[in-house]
Amino acid sequence: MRSSILNSEIKFIPGVGPKRAQLLEKELSIKTFEDLLYTFPFRYVDRSKFYLISELHADMPYVQIRGKFTRFDQVGDGRSKRLVGYFSDGRSSIEVIWFQGIKWIKDKYKAGTDYVLFGKPSTFNGKLNIAHPEIEVPKVEVGIINTAIHGVYCSTETLKDSFLSTKAFSRIVATLLQTVANQIGESLPDYLVKKLKLLPLRDALINVHFPQSSHLLQSAIQRLKFEELFYIQINLLKQKVLRERGFKGLLCKIVGDKFNTFYHDYLPFPLTNAQKRVIKEMRADMGSGRQMNRLLQGDVGSGKTLVALMMSLIASDNGYQVSLMAPTEILATQHYESIRSMLKDMPVEVALLTGSTKKRERKHLHEQLVAGKINLLIGTHALIEDVVQFRNLGLVIIDEQHRFGVMQRAKLWTKNHQPPHIIVMSATPIPRTLAMTMYGDLDVSVIDELPPGRKPITTIHFTDSHRRRLFGFMKEEIAKGRQIYVVYPLIKESEKMDYKDLEDGYESITRAFPFPDYVTVVLHGKMKAEDKDLAMAQFASGKANIMVATTVIEVGVNVPNASVMVIESAERFGLSQLHQLRGRVGRGAEQSFCILMSGHKLSKESKKRLETMVDTSDGFEIAEVDLKLRGPGDLEGTQQSGIAFDLKIANLAKDGKILQYARTVAEEVLKEDPTLDNPQNVVIKEQLQRLSPENKVNLKEIS
Ligand code: ADP
Ligand code: MG
Fold it and tell me: Do 171 and 211 meet the contact criterion of CB atoms below 8 Å apart?
C-alpha cells in the first residue's frame, strides 16, 4: 500500500519553503514528495576518484580534482570581467574562471588552502579551464548522503540563480528521504519483487539518489526501469484483454466471390510469400469471432496496400463496409485511383472522401454510406468526422498510422455498434521496442520481403559543389525516359523560408532544364487541391520529367517510372523521412538512384544519418539507428501517439531487454488474473489507476 504522505507538497520539506517550491514546480514540474523522489539524477560521478590536472581534457564530463589555489586575478572589465584562479595539484595547474559572483568568491576562497574542485573541463582560447566549479573543503560527511557516487540532477539557469544547483537539490532529496524513507511502500506486488529478485522500492529510491555502491546503484536503476516499463506494458495489455473480453468481433468467416474473383482473375502480380502469410494471419483473426487489432509492419514498397485491398474484399464478402484512411489528400487520392483501377471490372463500389470533397457530393456520399451502397470508402481525416456514418462498418484500415493518435484510432471504433476490425499500417518500419510501446495493445504482422525483381537503389551523397555533375546525371536519366523527384525540406518553424528554397530550386531547375525540352511540375502542401491533382497527374502519366516538391510526396506516392530521387538539404531530414522519400523510387524495373545533397559542414548526427542512408536500405536497420540517434521522444509520431514518452528512467533505445522482460512478466500476470482482482495484485490495480486515470475515459468512449 502506498502512503499518502508522498502526495504532500514539497514546500513542507525543511529547506524548501513556498518560494523554492514554486520555482521547482515551474521549472521541473515537481510538486509533491513523490515527484521529487522520482526526479532521478541524469548522471553519476564517482566522487571517490580524483583526477590529475595533467589527465584532464575538454571531452570529459564532470571531474574532481584536489589541490590549492596559488593566486586569483581579476581580468577584463565590463561584460568581459572575470576572476581567474590558478589551481595546482602540485604537479600541474589549471585556470578556474568565474564570470559572476566574483566578490563573493574572492572573499570566500583563499590561496593556499586545500580544496576539492568539481567541474567540467573545457577549452577557451585554446587553453584548458574549468568555469564555475563546485568547491568543497575536503571533509567526511555523515549520514545518508555519505556516498562516493554522486547523482547529478538536471538544473536550469533560473534554478541555479536561486541557489538550487544540483548539490542543493540533492540535499533536499536527502532531507526528504531521511523523513519518509520508512514510509515508502511497495508499488509492485510482493510476490513479484521476491520472484524477480528486485530491489524493494524503498531501497531502490534511496540508492538511485544516494548510491551506497555501484552494484546497488545498478540494482536500483534496474528495478525502477523495470517498474516503469512494466506499468506501461500491463496497461496496454490490460486494454487488449478488456477489449477481447468485452467485445465480440464481427465474424468474417467467408472467403467469397469478391476475394476469389480478384485473386484468380485480377491480381496484378503474384503475391509474395510474406504477403500471403500476413493475409492468412488476418483472415484467421477476422474469422475467429474476436475483434482484430493488428499492426501491419513492412518496409517501404513491400506491398501493404495490396494486402489492405484483399482484406477489404474479405470484409465485403461478409457483407461489411470498409474504410481506408490515409494521412494526406494526395495519398488518399492515389489509393483511390489505384484501387479503383484494380477493381474496375468487379462489383465493388469505391468512393473517395477528403477535405476538398464538394458539399453536395459529400451529402450524397453520406447517404450512400448509410444506405450501404458504398463498399469501400477511402479518405483522409475527414472520415473520422461524426457526420460520416456507415450502415455496417466492418473493417477500418489506417495507412501510415504513426501520424494518427491513439484517440483518433479509438474514435473509429464508435462508427459501428460493434467495433470493426482494425488494421494499422506503418509508414516505415518501427523499432521493436517502440512498436511494443506505441502499439503494445495490437497484434503484429510483418511483411519482411520485398516484391521480386526490385533492384537495390544506389544512394549517393553529394555536396553542393557537385551540382553540375548532378544536373548532367539528371539529363542522362531523362534521356533514358526516366522521371525525377527533387525534394526540398519543409519544417514548420521556418515554412516561409522553406517555400522560398523550393521556389528558388524550381527556378534553377527550370533554367537548367528549359521548357519545352523538359517539363517540370511543382507540388507542395499549400497548393489548391486541383493544382495538386494536375501536377500529380502530369507526373504520373509521364508528361512531366521532373517533379519539384516538398515532403508532401513523402508518404506513399507511387510512380514506378520515377527512378531518381534528389533530396536537397538532406541533412535537415530525419532518417525515417529520408527512407520514406527514397522509397518513392526503385518501384519499377530500372536501376534507381537516390541522391542526397547537403552542405559541406555537417553535424556529427547529420553525418551519421547520411552515412546510414548510403550504407543500408533495410528499413528496420534504419529505424534502429534513428531511435539511437534521436531518442524515442523525438521520433515522428511518438508525441501524438498518446503514450507518455517522457519516461523518467527507462530508455527505449537502450532498454530493449528490460522492456521485453517487463512485457513477458505483464503477460504472465494478466494470464493468471485478467481482471487484476486477485488480492495479491491489488497494488497493480491501484498503481494503474494512479498512473493513467485517462485510460478509463479512453475505454468508456470506446465501449
Ligand atoms: P507500401 O508497403 O510502401 O505501401 P505499396 O503497397 O505502395 O508499398 O507497394 C509498392 C509497389 O509494389 C506498388 O507499385 C505495388 O503495386 C507493388 N507490389 C505490391 N505487391 C507486389 C507483388 N506481390 N509483386 C510485385 N509488385 C508488387
Ligand atoms: Mg503505402
Answer: no
CA 676, 679, 684, 687 torsion: positive or negative?
Answer: positive
Q: Which pairs with CB-CB distance under 8 Å and at least 24 residues apart come from 623-627? A: 623/428, 623/429, 623/430, 623/431, 623/434, 623/575, 623/576, 624/431, 625/575, 626/431, 626/574, 626/575, 626/576, 627/431, 627/433, 627/434, 627/652, 627/653
Beta bridge partners of 67: 115
Ligand nearest to the CA of 562: 1
621 within a domain of the structure (yes/no): no
378 and 352 belong to one structural domain: yes
- The response to whether residue 279 sits with its C-beta less than 6 Å from ligand 1 reads no
Centroid of ligand 1 to alpha carbon of 303 (angstroms)? 3
Residue 667 covered by a domain:
yes
581 lines ligand 1 (CB under 6 A): no
The answer to whether the CB of 37 falls within 8 A of the CB of 50 is: no
Q: Which residue's entry shows cell 544516494?
A: 210
Number of domains the chain contains: 4
CA distance 113 to 67: 8
Taking the centre of ligand 2 as the mean of its atom positions, its distance from the CA of residue 404, in whole angstroms, is: 15
Tell me the C-alpha distance between 585 and 557, whole Å.
Answer: 10
Q: Is the CB of 298 under 6 A from ligand 1?
A: yes
Q: Which of 339, 558, 559 to probe ligand 1 with, by most ligand atoms within 8 A of CB?
A: 558
Which residue's alpha carbon is nearest to atom 4 within ligand 1? 304
> Which sign, positive or negative, has the C-alpha torsion 20, 22, 27, 28?
positive
At 436 the pLDDT is 86
**Do residues 463 and 605 both lie within one domain?**
yes
Divide the 703 residues of the chain into consecutive groups of 10 and give the mean pLDDT of each group. 76 89 90 94 82 90 89 87 93 92 89 90 88 79 58 82 82 92 92 96 95 91 96 90 82 94 95 97 93 91 94 97 90 91 95 92 95 96 85 91 60 76 88 84 91 89 93 96 93 70 91 94 88 91 94 74 95 90 87 95 92 94 87 50 66 90 96 94 90 47 32
Residue with cell 514554486: 22
Please compute Rg for the chain using Cα positions. Answer: 30
Has residue 156 been placed in a domain?
no
pLDDT at site 431: 85
How many residues in total does the chain contain?
A: 703
Q: Give the integer Cα–Cα distance in Å for 403 and 639.
A: 10
Same domain, 282 and 416: yes
Which amino acid is present at 307? V
Residue for grid cell 476538398? 356
How buried is residue 538: exposed, middle or buried, by Cβ count under 10 Å (0-12/13-18/19+)?
middle
Of 205, 214, 99, the closest CA to residue 160 belongs to 99
User: 275 CB under 6 A from ligand 1?
Assistant: yes
Query: Domain containing 343: what range?
Result: 257-447
Quote the CA–CA distance of 550 and 370 in Å, as a whole number.
Answer: 37
CB-based contact 398:312 (threshold 8 Å): no
In angstroms, the CA 320 to CA 311 distance is: 11
C-alpha–C-alpha distance, residues 639 and 420, integer Å: 26
Count CB neighbours of 516 within 10 A: 5
Amino acid residing at 167: K
Collapsing DSSP to helix, strand or coil, 57 comes out as: coil
Q: What does each C-alpha distance from 644 to 229, 434, 499, 640, 667 come to in angstroms? A: 11, 12, 33, 10, 20
